[in-house]
Structure formats: C-alpha cells, structure tokens
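Bumping my old thread because nobody answered last time. Still need a sequence for this structure:
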C-alpha cells in the first residue's frame, strides 16, 4: 500500500479504537456479550474491547516482527492509546549515560512554569529492555507530569540485544547521578527527587533506587508500575495470564533471552531483584502498582513484600480489572485513564 493509504488505514483504526473504547461500559458489555472473569477478577470492558479489536485486525504480535519493525510498531501502538496529551512545556536535552550521552526529554507541567525548583521524577520507559523510548511513552509522561504537578525527566537508555545486561541498569543509574549533580540545570528540587517507570522501566527504577541507596544519593520516592522483578521463576500469574492479555509468554521469554547473556546474569542481585537477600540501608519509599490480568502481577507484589520485609516503606496497589500496559492508555477509554490520574495524584502527594 502507498504511504497515504497506510496513513488512512491507521487513522481509521485509531478512530474505531477510541470510539469503541469510549462507549459507556453498559453498551460495551452488550457488544461483547460475555465478561472475562479469571482468578476472581473481571476484566474491564474497555480493555476487553481493545483486545477484541486487536484480534479482529489480525495484526502480527510485536514479538513476531523483526526487531527494527517491532520497535516502530511499539511506538505506533503506544500512540494509538496515548493520544496527544497537553503539557506546559517540553525540553529535549542530553544526560550522562554509563558510556556516553543519552537523549532525554523534560516535561514541565503548566502549574510549574516559572516556579521555584520543583519536584522531579526521572522516568524510565518500559518495553522489555529491548523496545521503547522517548516517543513510546511521550503521552504517558505528559499525562503524568501535567496531572501530578511533578516535573518528569524521561531518559532513553541503551537497549538489548545491542547492549545486554547491565548496560540499561548502568545507564539509568548514571542518568540519575547526572540529575542529582545537575538539578539546577533542570530546575529540580534536590530534596524532592523520585525515580519511576513501567514494566522494564519499573525494574530499572528498582535497581536505580538500590544503587542510589548504596551510593548515599538523595532519593525521596520510587514509583514502580507493574515491574518485572524475577527472571528465574515462573509465578502463578505468569501461568494464568501468559496468553490473551496483551503481554504474553513469548514476548517475556524473548526479552529475557535478549537482555541476559547468561543464567548467572538472570540470578545477579541486580538481575532478578525479587531474589535478593540483602538491601542497602536508606532505600526510598516505594509505591508498587500491579494489574490484575498481568503476567507480572505476582512478581511485582512479591517484590513489594520483600522490600517491606527488609524495612522499606512500601504501599501496594492492584488494579484488578486492568492488563499490562494500562499506564499508557491515557488517550482512549475512561477507566485506565482514571487510574492514571490516581497514579499522578499519588506521585504529587509523595513529593508534596
């Protein structure tokens, strides 16, 4: 097909998706006929609608595509459910990585324009450590910043398989060190810094928080959105929700195998953080979010419990009706977007 035809088809897909996801839940239930119930939970009708549309479209799964095409498809899918979210101001900049500069993007909420040094979250995107970037999470970062009043610095770390473990971990910690040392350059309040991300970004946020505590760096809060934390064991939720709920077993296995070169790396204390037996003193308080129909649900909650057992202040929140990826669904539907607003409020309160 021509480029114009592709664009037209894409526009129609987006229109159909947002129209059906935006219908009242009662009408969605009538169209869908039968609710999806599993493990004592009921899937959100708007999410069930989205999954049904993906199935009807018969588009290949991300993990079935060549790497370059898969990365483009990741950005496209995120744009479809993310939309164009408002933000006070944007700045593209570079920060330090472990071996060189990294692209970064600063999201300044409208309420903070011209303000004194402001609370700032360093955001680490998801994508299995092999996909994703500044663009895939642009809408989510805009939504989070604008609705929390917290400035967001999104960092584009190196991806596997080109750069396997621990390149991403090292980049994220180096970027956080840069933020601490150069807080004045981005108008960040050094006493109100946080780190956070979704999925792989939740995992990399957890390792960044650990390394920050080891180095004695200030960190006020960590926001872990359905983090992957165990690359060795298969949890109950991995078995229950490994197929049919967006994130699937093939994707997770592919990401694991491309990121970790050896089994020893998977078992490293910074590899599978849920298997750690020791934590440094002074780890920042954590807010750990999970989704009911997410294969990563149980390992995220297990990590929260592990932190609590080691004396870390932790609050857990499960959204029973949601799937992996709902954090990015800020431009389609109602329920997921509403939960995004709750997450933004929690971040605002944590750095108040």
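Sorry it took so long. Here it is:
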């Amino acid at each position: 097909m021509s480029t114009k035809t592709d664009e037209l088809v894409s526009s129609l897909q987006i229109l159909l998706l947002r129209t059906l996801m935006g219908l009242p839940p009662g009408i969605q239930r009538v169209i869908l006929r039968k609710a999806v119930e599993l493990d004592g939970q009921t899937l959100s009708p708007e999410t069930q609608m989205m999954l049904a549309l993906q199935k009807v479209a018969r588009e290949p799964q991300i993990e079935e595509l060549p790497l370059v095409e898969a990365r483009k498809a990741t950005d496209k899918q995120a744009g479809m459910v993310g939309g164009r979210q408002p933000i006070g101001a944007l700045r593209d900049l570079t920060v330090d990585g472990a071996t060189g500069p990294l692209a970064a993007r600063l999201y300044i909420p409208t309420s903070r324009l011209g303000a004194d040094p402001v609370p700032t979250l360093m955001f680490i995107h998801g994508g299995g450590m092999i996909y994703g970037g500044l663009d895939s999470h642009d809408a989510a970062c805009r939504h989070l910043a604008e609705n929390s009043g917290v400035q967001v610095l999104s960092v584009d770390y190196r991806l596997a398989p080109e750069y396997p473990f621990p390149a991403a971990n090292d980049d994220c910690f180096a970027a956080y060190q840069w933020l601490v040392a150069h807080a004045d350059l981005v108008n960040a309040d050094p006493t109100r810094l946080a780190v956070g991300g979704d999925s792989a970004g939740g995992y990399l946020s957890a390792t960044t928080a650990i390394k920050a505590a080891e180095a004695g760096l200030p960190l006020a809060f960590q926001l872990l959105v359905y983090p992957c934390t165990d690359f060795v064991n298969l949890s109950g939720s991995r078995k229950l929700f490994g197929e049919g709920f967006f994130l699937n077993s093939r994707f997770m296995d592919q990401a694991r195998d491309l990121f970790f070169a050896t089994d020893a790396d998977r078992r490293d204390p910074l590899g599978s953080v849920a298997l750690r037996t020791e934590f440094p003193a002074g780890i920042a308080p954590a807010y750990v979010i999970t989704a009911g129909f997410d294969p990563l649900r149980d390992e995220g909650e297990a990590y929260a419990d592990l932190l609590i057992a080691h004396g870390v202040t932790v609050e857990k929140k499960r959204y029973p009706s949601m799937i992996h990826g709902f954090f990015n669904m800020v431009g389609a539907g109602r329920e997921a977007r509403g939960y995004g607003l709750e997450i933004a409020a929690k971040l605002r309160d944590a750095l108040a």
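The chain has a mean pLDDT of 94. Let me know if any region looks off to you.
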